[in-house]
Amino acid sequence: MTTPTMTSPAAPMERKAWVEQVMGMPVSIHLRGHELSRPRAVEAVRAAYATLRRLDGIFSTYRPDSEVMRLQRGEVSIGQCCVEVREVLAIGEQAERRTGGAFTTLLPTGAGELAFDPTGLVKGWAVDVVARELAGLSDVSYCINAGGDLLIGAHPDVPLSGSGSISWRVGIEDPRDRSAIVRTVPMTHGAVATSGTAARGAHLYDPATGEYVGRSGSVTVIGPELVWADIWATALFVGGEPAREAFALAAPDYLSTVL
């Protein structure tokens, strides 16, 4: 899990935060900039949460009427699903190839059969999608925290470094002592995702063994997009040397921390 704090830029700026329970987890949106109470900023945050709720209605495995559950039951074909489902399916297939099979969207159902379940990537992908609602806010930097995975960005008029940049300090949690931060990373843009068993136990599926991984520890990945940071964090936690070799070759813009 990762936790954001904020450093002070050269000039005083406003700070506002919102939090809602979406996709079964708290999702907080933090903004830093000027005039954050203006209607455009408030509406952008409202639109971001509305998009998350809409995507949850499509991908939730807890709602029997979601498209993913209807697809699992054979009530619809992939061609009959909305464009978002087909996009996520394509990302999942690409992720399986890139990670050498360490990541998969085919997970066991309650009956023990494998079925399309993109839970492992939808959160990061959805946050990348809703960030577009915030990126158009001039003179504003944002941080979206979805259950401990973060995406940080800003309007193009905000410098990424030097004078005028807005830096967020991201703390990486010790998986064996969740009250401790083992590393702090200053960031002006990018994504941070952590996979492990500290928060949710053995919930990460290893396609090679057909079992859920229960060992302690975590892997944190930092990179440009949250969906791929999340995919790689999962692949590196469940996979072995082939996954690490695939990461070194296929993800030059991403860095990993193993704890």
Q: Can you walk me through this structure?
A:
This protein has 259 residues and is of the alpha+beta class. Helix content is 32%, strand content 32%. The chain has 6 helices and 14 strands. It has helices spanning 39-59, 67-72, 83-98, 119-135, 226-238, 241-250, and strands at residues 2-6, 14-22, 25-33, 106-108, 114-116, 140-146, 149-154, 168-174, 177-187, 190-196, 204-206, 211-213, 218-223, 255-258. The strands form 4 sheets. It has a 7-stranded antiparallel beta sheet with strand order 2-3-6-7-10-13-14, covered by helices on one side. β8 (168-174) and β9 form a beta hairpin. α1 (39-59) packs antiparallel against α4 and α4 (119-135) packs antiparallel against α5 (226-238). The longest helix has 21 residues, at 39-59. Mean pLDDT is 94; it is low at 7-11.
